[in-house]
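Entry 14. Ran structure prediction on the chain below.
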Amino acid sequence: MNRISLRRRVPVSWLALAVVFIMARPAYAGEGVTPVAIRSVSLFKNGLAFIVSSATLPAESRSVNIGQLPIPSFGTFWVAYPSSVRVQGLISSMTEVEKRVPAFSIGQLLLGNPGKKVLVQTSDKTIEGTIIPPAAADELPVVQSPYVMSPRGGVGQLPSGSDVLLIKTEKGISVINASSALRADFADHDIAGTVPYRYKSPSVRIQLAEPAGGETVTVSCLAHGVTWAPGYLIDLSDPKKANVSAHAEIINELADLHDVSLQLVTGFPSAKFGDLESPLAMSQDLAGFLRSLAMGSMPRLQGATIMSQMLTSNTAAAYGGDAVAPAPAYPTASEGTVAEDLFFYPVKNFTLRKDETAWIPLFTAEMPYKHIYTWDIGDFLDEQDHYRVPAAQGGEKSPEEVWHACRLTNTLAMPLTTAAAEFMTGGTFTGQDICHYTPPGTETTIRINKALNIIADQAEVEVERKRDASVAHGYHYDLVKLRGELKLRSRVDRTVKVEITKECSGDVLESTPAAKDVKTARGLRQVNARHVLTWVVALDPGEERTVTYQYQVLFRE
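Output, structure tokens:
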């Protein structure tokens, strides 16, 4: 090669490569694949989504490849089509795919320009000649995705063994490692900034008895990769009416959603095989599928976790001066639909790209509420019928916990779903807890903060004991009568109501004042009945009240 041609060569260094990377856009292979568009998505809070997609069949084709399908859960993949379409079946297989990806090194750039004349410099020599195309790999890598039946990772990575660079020179063929190239001068300005990347990926094709051009097929399935997490903001600035605002956070790692019909689902559906991937996904061999089927699920790929409910710990905003945060005022609640025990909250014309998270307002509504203070006391009898008094900490009795709570009445025509609930009064953060599932027309109690100005104390003493009073399941039981005393003292500057809940086992003999007594189920091998005693005590500022009760119980030493 003469000196004139050398002066016309295009040098490639890391600076020049940076320009190539910015200018080059990968051309993804998609020829012969019929696109599938997602039309509707119903999101559950456990990480599953019911996805309905559609595709228009091409003309003059009896074998139609459809692409970008979510990985379906076992037993949930279905195809619907008009009676005029004669579908013989679907076939899933691993097919060879090639696309071009940006070159990230001089060596990859050399491998991506076969047939080009080049002058290559390494640390110890200079080679001038024509690049020979690399040999095709016999076995291509399989790129798996946790959510979609198409590659997700691996972009920009070449198959192993493709570091070999062959250059035809005047003396023969030079073979070097492409990664050893420090500089490359091309004799041509027209060089490719991308390299081919070949791999295997799952592919689904529909077999037709005859072409059905223009007809639409619908594909539906349960899949992972997109979910939602609700949240409530409860403004208690008004003493009787709470301003309840709801929002939804939607996390999308599945695919682009464009103008879809979105349903946010409240409820707990049974999905026996929700974590078992369909064999159509080609994600495991036959033996692996049978093992997973026997267990009812399969290990998810790294990064694919199931989110049943996102609860984040928010901290109060630091407001300066007299500034306060305004309470949201979203539209009124939309009318949803009910199917079995599930409620579907609609969001129309929803758009969200893959790997984006959306925060969307749902509604603001007024609901009646009242302040309540709660003191919950557990049973001192454990599952083995042993009497266990809570251990003191540091030689002293552990303090009792009384909580200031909000008792809210759901006046909406739809349920309140389990979600994080934040409280605000006068624009200031006052607390956060969980709002549990609340059907329409019912009450829910949500903690706001600890009531440090309500002092509580309790004690139980043994009144009498009858040794070896009973034998059950091979164990000897004593019959013991116990007397309990609960004391409350208020330092709050207004009258408050405290709801005391005490769990106990055995037979309740008396309580003063009279308690509401609700019997609950006991275990199969437990000899004592279970009770929940409830008192509602009104406390004036500075007042002290005492509640007493007696019960007898069988327990083991």
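Residues 1-30, 151-161, 299-325 have pLDDT under 50 and may be disordered. Will compare against last week's run tomorrow.
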